[in-house]
Amino acid sequence: MSKIWIFDLDDTLHDASSKIFPRINQSMTAYVSHKLNISLADAHHLRNEYWKVYGATLKGLIQNHGVNPQEFLLNTHDAEELSKFVKQSHALKNILKKLIGKKIIFTNAPLHYAIAIIKALNIQKYSSDIYSIESTDYNPKPSHYAFRKILKKLKKRPNQCVMVEDDLANLKTAHKIGMKTILVSKQNKKTAFVTKRISKITYLIH
Question: Which fold is adopted by the domain 20-81?
Fold first, then answer.
């Protein structure tokens, strides 16, 4: 039975924390401040509240303020600018090339951004599909709904899939529904829902 490799994008296949995430966060806070006519400090506080309640800024904005999700995503994810911070990796390409089975991307990021990052990494030919926040009706990982939606689109059972992620919460849901899980992290903390742990993506085959 051929495996389906499901890869997270940011901080799994490339480094997003150092330069990309800070810019996205800044853009999101600025958008909320402008859209709701509140101070940057209040916008930052509101975003934190929405993270606690909904798991994402966008979900809170949709539920409470009727914000257009596409407008939000286009304003906060400048793909052309952000993709400039991506570094290509021959090691990453070699790993994806050698990996047997279908490979897809499953990200909480918007589609236009995911396409730009994948193109910047030059790994387009190694991923057959991209599932973005739009694919899950704006319900982000780690929601069960998001994972079930992707499995339905893939027409696969959970035990056919391996989720490769840097985020423990996302892996916990993947494990709960029956997927194998691989954590990409330098953390050493043992967790029952992680099948395998690697410190970086290029160690996947080892």
Answer: DNA polymerase; domain 1 (1.10.150)
Domain ranges of the chain: 4-14+87-203, 20-81
pLDDT digits (tens, 9 = 90+) for 126-174: 998 999 999 999 999 999 999 999 999 999 999 999 999 999 999 999 9
Angstrom distance (rounded) from CA 167 to CA 81: 25
Do the Cβ atoms of 40 and 47 come closer than 8 Å? no
Q: Which amino acid is at 102?
A: K
Architecture of domain 4-14+87-203: 3-Layer(aba) Sandwich (3.40)
The DSSP 8-state label assigned to residue 195 in this structure reads S
Q: 7-25 as b/e, with b when 16 or more CB fall inside 10 Å?
A: bbbbbbbbbbeeebeebbe
What are the CB-based long-range contacts (under 8 Å, 24+) for 110-113? Answer: 110/73, 110/74, 110/77, 110/134, 111/135, 112/73, 112/74, 112/77, 112/79, 113/73, 113/77, 113/79, 113/82
* Full-model pTM: 0.94
Tens digits of residue pLDDT in 3-15: 899 999 999 999 9
